[in-house]
Amino acid sequence: MAFAVTVDLVLFTIRDDRLCALMVRRRSPPYRGKWALPGGFVEEDEGLVDAAKRELGEETGLDDVRVHLEQLATYGDPGRDPRGRIVSVVHLAFGPELPEPRAGDDAAAARWRPVDELLSSRLAFDHGRILTDGLERARAKLEYTPLATAFVGEDFTVAELRHVYEVVWGTTLDPRNFHRKVTGSPGMLEPTGGRTTRNAGRPAQLYRRGDATLLNPPITRAQASD
Amino acid sequence: MAFAVTVDLVLFTIRDDRLCALMVRRRSPPYRGKWALPGGFVEEDEGLVDAAKRELGEETGLDDVRVHLEQLATYGDPGRDPRGRIVSVVHLAFGPELPEPRAGDDAAAARWRPVDELLSSRLAFDHGRILTDGLERARAKLEYTPLATAFVGEDFTVAELRHVYEVVWGTTLDPRNFHRKVTGSPGMLEPTGGRTTRNAGRPAQLYRRGDATLLNPPITRAQASD
DNA sequence: ATAATAGTGTCTCTTAGACAATATTTC
DNA sequence: GAAATATTGTCTAAGAGACACTATTAT
């Protein structure tokens, strides 16, 4: 009745207009050569969230102020890892565009991989299922929380935020209706006063994340066209 | 790096117009005399869900066809149990009104306790926090899933279903608007054709749970008056 | 000027919530 | 009939989505 406990990480970011997850390539059996979620054993006297933060730091060099982190679920069926009984407390993390990770120390190459490609390939262990669960959680939370702000920089435009929704949901949103909804959702956005000219066209207002934790009214998903 | 893994249960039901949880009274230290969530160790070669079902059966004699069961979250900070490092995978369950449980074998008295009383008292371990998390999850899921049907019998009336919402949310709902919403939510209810006269007044139609897993449109919480 | 992007206004349709009215039972 | 509960209908206000229009920049 003694179990090994690990913390694995589903870490999402947006790169090149695609939703990507950080994955490591296994270089020893089982599942040698397959992609797996980053993770590791929880240490003695280490909390679960602390372990997740440590993993996050080891993989990306980022601390958790820039990255939203929450528990996803725990996977612990016997047989999910042929080496023994391993209970995995999986955490879900969202970050702005991050640099390509340095090749890991113990693990093999760590890389950002597009989620759609991952889901149509075979991953190590039960990580395909975990990734699916994480994706669904992310999609749902965009609707009723300001989670999308975790994918962009500290100061961002409404268009950048809309882009997050479009990429994660895989839909197209009307820029005008989206603008009205998102600026009308109290506590979601805080204008910084600044403007930007990152692209051509009229400069956009810059915003910061507001202090709301729940969106009311929500940004509904059915708005999709396409 | 070897951890003990338990499965604890937040089991909700409605008794006497109150939301109640099944609790056991500890009869040995630590937290002797305090109320705690029912639970136990996961066995070798036993899945997490299987362990939760086994616990449920041991405590209530019910199998899981009559009870909705889902994973809530995992609590595993060091120090949460003075006896050692214990990682607890907590499951959330909802059932119709159940008989008073037989006094447990190993544990002390098992009893249904009103949730509001529990939350204003000191529970064993971190179970107060866990109960709070479970309550919030239950309240949220009433909005967008047919979860309320798990609290009533197999055949039920709209009024019985409304009562579930009122008790769990602690609000009052307009019977007329509620009726329109719930019967208009596709896939939530299936008319059985039967009628009932459990109370005075005009007999009510009987329904069964439909096959929807997501409510669209949802039964919104802000409808509350009072 | 033209292209490009940002932001506002307007219209229609659906839904939420307040509340009136009707239906069907028990006592 | 009176009381109680079930069910339907009506009205108003708010939000969603379609889409025209104006604003401000680069080239």
Strand content of chain A: 25-35%
Q: Output the number of helix runs of chain A.
A: 5
Assembly form of the protein: homodimer
Shape type of chain A? elongated
Biggest interface, chains and residues, is: A-B, 24 and 24 residues
How far apart, in Å, are the first and last alpha carbons of chain A? 52 Å
| CATH topology label of the largest domain in chain A | Nucleoside Triphosphate Pyrophosphohydrolase
Commentary on this structure:
Two copies of one chain form a homodimer. The model of chain A has no long low-confidence stretch (mean pLDDT 91). Chain A has two domains: 129 residues, Nucleoside Triphosphate Pyrophosphohydrolase (Alpha-Beta Complex); 81 residues, Arc Repressor Mutant, subunit A (Orthogonal Bundle), CATH 1.10.10. With 226 residues, the first copy, chain A, is an alpha+beta fold. The first copy, chain A, is elongated, with a radius of gyration of 19 Å. In chain A, 26% of the residues lie in helices and 28% in strands. In chain A, the strands form two sheets. In chain A, strands 1, 2, 3, 4, 5, 6 and 7 form a seven-stranded mixed beta sheet that branches. A two-stranded antiparallel ribbon of chain A has the order 8-9. Chain A is built from five helices and nine strands, in the order ββββαβββααααββ. At the A-B interface, strand 1 and strand 5 of A face strand 1 and strand 5 of B. Strand 1 of chain A pairs antiparallel with strand 1 of chain B. The structure holds a DNA duplex (27 and 27 nucleotides).
